């Protein structure tokens, strides 16, 4: 795991000609039920975005090359996040409200992206951002019928990739939903997956979490991450 995976794009094209003439369309009632379920799920996700102001959790990250990293996630909406790696990974990822910083303490390098041009915008914004990111809902997977998947990408920056947030109903959470994690699909068609456990929501977080020790120019590299 040498650098932050590049964010890419996934374009799904659907043309009317792709439906054969002899293919029967689902009954109108069935289509309506599916649409109603999707709208309800979208409202639930919007409630989550509006109701969860902070989130703290353990994370497990699976990179496309098979590498696994672990750490602790701190999130404050809108615009703040910290991926604090707790294993031997010498990286730190911090968003300070405007900029996403990827800090490599091993080689003394900091790479920056405008936060609004990364897929994490869908996670760190509010419900109002979902429409601008062309968010769409999928319902369920075999064995996980209650799963809600929200996919989003920035139409103005499609090369930055697509993020899919995974939610499950959970009455123990303030908004009735639990964020299980997400996947990011990059321009190469490779997926980086992250899962969350041990979550705490709407607790006070220290403002120092959104800062970092800049390793550039240091004669001795250190792994201090705050």
UniProtKB/TrEMBL annotation:
<dbReference type="Pfam" id="PF03548">
    <property type="entry name" value="LolA"/>
</dbReference>
<dbReference type="InterPro" id="IPR004564">
    <property type="entry name" value="OM_lipoprot_carrier_LolA-like"/>
</dbReference>
<keyword id="KW-0449">Lipoprotein</keyword>
<feature type="signal peptide">
    <location>
        <begin position="1"/>
        <end position="20"/>
    </location>
</feature>
<dbReference type="InterPro" id="IPR029046">
    <property type="entry name" value="LolA/LolB/LppX"/>
</dbReference>
<keyword id="KW-0732">Signal</keyword>
<protein>
    <submittedName>
        <fullName>Outer membrane lipoprotein-sorting protein</fullName>
    </submittedName>
</protein>
């Amino acid at each position: 795991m040498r650098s932050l995976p590049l964010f890419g794009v996934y374009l799904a094209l659907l043309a009317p000609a792709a439906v054969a003439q002899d293919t029967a369309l689902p009954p109108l009632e069935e289509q309506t039920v599916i649409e109603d379920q999707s709208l309800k799920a979208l409202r639930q996700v919007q409630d989550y975005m509006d109701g969860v102001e902070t989130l703290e959790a353990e994370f497990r990250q699976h990179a496309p090359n098979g590498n696994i990293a672990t750490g602790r996630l701190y999130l404050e909406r809108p615009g703040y996040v910290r991926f604090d790696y707790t294993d031997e990974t010498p990286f730190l990822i911090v968003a300070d409200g405007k900029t996403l910083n990827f800090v490599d303490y091993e080689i003394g390098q900091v790479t920056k992206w405008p936060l609004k041009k990364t897929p994490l915008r869908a996670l760190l914004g509010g419900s109002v951002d979902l429409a601008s990111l062309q968010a769409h809902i999928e319902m369920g997977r075999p064995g996980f019928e209650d799963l809600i998947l929200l996919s989003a990408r920035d139409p103005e920056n499609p090369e930055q990739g697509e993020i899919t947030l995974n939610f499950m109903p959970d009455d123990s959470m303030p908004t009735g939903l639990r964020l299980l994690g997400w996947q990011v699909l990059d321009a190469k068609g490779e997926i980086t997956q992250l899962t969350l456990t041990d979550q705490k929501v709407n607790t006070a977080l220290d403002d120092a979490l959104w800062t970092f020790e800049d390793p550039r120019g240091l004669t001795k590299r250190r792994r201090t991450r705050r």
